[in-house]
């Protein structure tokens, strides 16, 4: 019997070795039984140390990241035997009572300050850029109706959308061009971004407040038209609303042209 087990040995290999030693111990006396017990204790110790190291690696990755990380990225940096779901759950539990929490936003993970400590962070918290009423309305329409074209935004608001409004939403990286609608003219559609999800702490777009939530918060007038409704942002998109997505290069070119003064570089309306 050799003692060359390392912290990189998979847990099932350790378990198999321990089982073999137990079987030998049943037939070869107390000395082998003692060896089996010692090896079992070593296996448990190594497994605990391996998990602890993986937790430390995960903690370091999330702490050092400039933006939230998805599970695929985290898995690529962890040892092969690491169970990412189990590790994230344990790390979240460890930080549950601390000044920072491990949170999931838009399918990605990050550390953020505990909500109950907001009052002591007011003095050092960055003042967010305030949006105009027009920008708030435009952003809300895009969030709830996406994918939505500029003409549809204007139809819902009842007024034209100014360049300055869309410029601001682009600069904040809350809005992006999504694709071209499969309708005559192939107009560009707009949608929200990962940055929008992170800023408003949304795990999915379906977490946006519904009509009852908006009423409870006093954000809707009590005298609403009988046919008024708040769209469900998590709804299934109708087939005739499907779009051809823009590649990263096309989206970048569109954004550059838009900011330079041409919001439809291909001439579609």
Task: Outline the structure in words.
By secondary structure, this protein is α+β, with helices and mostly antiparallel strands. It has 2 domains: 11-118, Arc Repressor Mutant, subunit A, CATH 1.10.10.10; 133-259, Orthogonal Bundle (Arc Repressor Mutant, subunit A). It is 46% helix and 12% strand. It is built from 10 helices and 7 strands. It has a 4-stranded antiparallel sheet. Strands 1-3-2 form a 3-stranded antiparallel sheet. A hairpin with a 2-residue loop joins β2 (100-105) and β3 (108-113). α1 runs antiparallel to α2 (30-64) and α2 packs across α4. The chain is elongated and about 80 Å long. The protein starts with 10 loop residues before the first helix and ends in a 10-residue tail after the last helix. Residues 1-9, 41-45 and 265-269 have low confidence and may be disordered.
CATH class of the largest domain: Mainly Alpha
> What oligomeric state do the depicted chains represent?
single chain
Which regions contain 5 or more consecutive residues with pLDDT less than 50?
1-9, 41-45, 265-269
Distance between the termini: 77 Å
Over all CA atoms, what is the radius of gyration? 27 Å
Helix content: 40-55%
Domain count: 2
Question: What is the topology, as strand order, of the major beta sheet?
Answer: 4-6-5-7
Q: Under CATH, the topology of the largest domain is which? A: Arc Repressor Mutant, subunit A
Q: Topology as H/E string? A: HHEHHEEHEHHEEHHEH
CATH architecture of the largest domain: Orthogonal Bundle
Per DSSP E runs of 2 or more residues, the count of β-strands stands at 7
Total helix count? 10
Main structural class: alpha+beta
Report the CATH superfamily of the largest domain: Winged helix-like DNA-binding domain superfamily/Winged helix DNA-binding domain
Q: Please report which band the strand proportion falls in: under 5%, 5-15%, 15-25%, 25-35%, 35-45% or over 45%.
A: 5-15%
Mean pLDDT figure: 76
Overall form = elongated
Largest sheet composition: 4 strands, antiparallel
């Amino acid at each position: 019997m050799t003692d060359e087990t390392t912290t990189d040995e998979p847990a099932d290999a350790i378990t198999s070795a321990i089982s073999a030693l137990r079987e030998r111990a049943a037939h070869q006396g107390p000395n082998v039984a003692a060896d089996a017990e010692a090896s079992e204790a070593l296996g448990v110790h190594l497994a605990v140390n391996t998990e602890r190291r993986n937790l430390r690696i995960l903690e370091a990755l999330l702490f050092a990241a400039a933006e939230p990380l998805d599970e695929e990225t985290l898995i690529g940096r962890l040892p092969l035997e690491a169970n990412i779901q189990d590790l994230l759950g344990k790390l979240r539990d460890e930080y549950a009572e601390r000044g920072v929490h491990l949170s999931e936003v838009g399918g990605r993970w990050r550390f953020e300050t505990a909500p109950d400590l907001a009052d002591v962070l007011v003095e050092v918290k960055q003042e967010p850029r305030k949006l105009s009423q027009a920008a708030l309305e435009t952003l809300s329409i895009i969030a709830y109706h996406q994918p939505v074209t500029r003409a549809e935004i204007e139809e819902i608001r009842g007024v034209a959308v100014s360049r300055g409004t869309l410029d601001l939403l682009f600069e904040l990286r809350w809005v992006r061009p999504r694709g071209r609608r499969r309708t005559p003219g192939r107009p560009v559609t707009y949608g929200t971004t990962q940055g929008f999800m992170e800023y408003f702490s949304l795990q999915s777009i379906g977490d946006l407040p519904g009509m009852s939530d908006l009423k409870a918060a006093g954000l809707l007038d009590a005298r609403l038209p009988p046919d008024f409704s708040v769209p469900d942002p998590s709804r299934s998109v109708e087939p005739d609303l499907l779009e051809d997505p823009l590649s990263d290069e096309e989206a970048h070119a569109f954004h550059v042209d838009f900011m330079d003064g041409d919001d439809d570089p291909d001439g579609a309306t």
